[in-house]
Write a structure and sequence with these properties.
Elements lengths: L4 E5 L3 H13 L3 E5 L2 H11 L3 E5 L7 H10 L8 E6 L3 H10 L3 E5 L3 H16 L8 E4 L2 E4 L4 E4 L2 E2 L4 H12 L5 E2 H9 L9 H13 L6 E4 L3 E4 L2
């Protein structure tokens, strides 16, 4: 199997060296660019399997790089993991809305980075099966065609919004969803609700899921995800 190619877009040479060394040790082919402009050029030239993108860079910042990548048909499908400072929660939310797949906060540990890289690559390689109508995670079983969810064999009394929320999260375990993204799944374009109503739906859903409620985790300042 050919090795995956990763592109690091980061202006700090020490961080580039750290990431490059550890990722290569894991068997990845690693490219690096020291600023946003060079990163965009490299992404378009090589079309890597994944991009690790620093948000705070001189010139073209990471958010603008992400926006440009997702607007370009040739690079829009490349998964992106943002590398952020701890005080950049609002930028994380915006980056996810722009199409980034995940993020890690500085200072980071390499085990976390490697785990997120593996998870995002795994998700990106999954063939989307539009015929799939059921999901099972532990004691939780969801049937989209029947609009039913069971925990340990017990039918859950879910509203339409709660079911849509559950399906969105469980169908993409590990992916971080912002509240705005979950609003789109909940409403399916049928109504307008506040993004803060998502918190109410999640709280109710966890309560109804009982022992399986821990599958849905809160990502502070960003949104929610299902454990992978």
């Amino acid at each position: 199997m050919p090795q995956d190619t990763l592109l690091i877009i980061e202006d700090d040479p020490d961080i580039v060296e750290l990431l490059q060394y550890n990722l290569q040790k894991e068997g990845y082919s690693v490219l690096a660019a020291i600023d946003g402009e060079a990163g965009l050029a490299s992404a378009r030239r090589h079309v890597p399997d994944l991009i690790l993108l620093d948000l705070m860079m001189p010139g073209i910042n990471g958010l603008d790089v992400c926006r440009a990548l997702k607007a370009d048909e040739g690079t829009s499908a490349i998964p992106v993991i943002m590398v952020t400072a701890k005080d950049e929660e609002s930028d994380v939310v915006l980056g996810l809305e722009l199409g980034a797949d995940d993020y890690v906060s500085k200072p980071f540990g390499m085990p976390e980075v490697l785990a997120r890289v593996r998870a995002v690559l795994r998700r990106s390689k999954q063939v989307l099966d539009t015929s799939r109508t059921t999901l099972t995670v532990g004691d939780l079983h969801i049937d989209q065609q029947r609009f039913e969810a069971h925990v340990d064999g017990q039918l859950l009394d879910l509203t339409r919004a709660e079911f849509r929320l559950l399906w969105a999260l469980v169908s993409q375990p590990g992916r971080v969803f912002t509240r705005d993204q979950l609003v789109e799944h909940i409403t399916a374009g049928e109504a307008m609700i506040s993004d803060r109503n998502v918190d109410v739906h999640v709280s109710a859903l966890r309560r109804k899921m009982a022992t399986a409620g821990g599958l849905i985790t809160t990502v502070r300042g960003v949104g929610y995800k299902c454990k992978d």
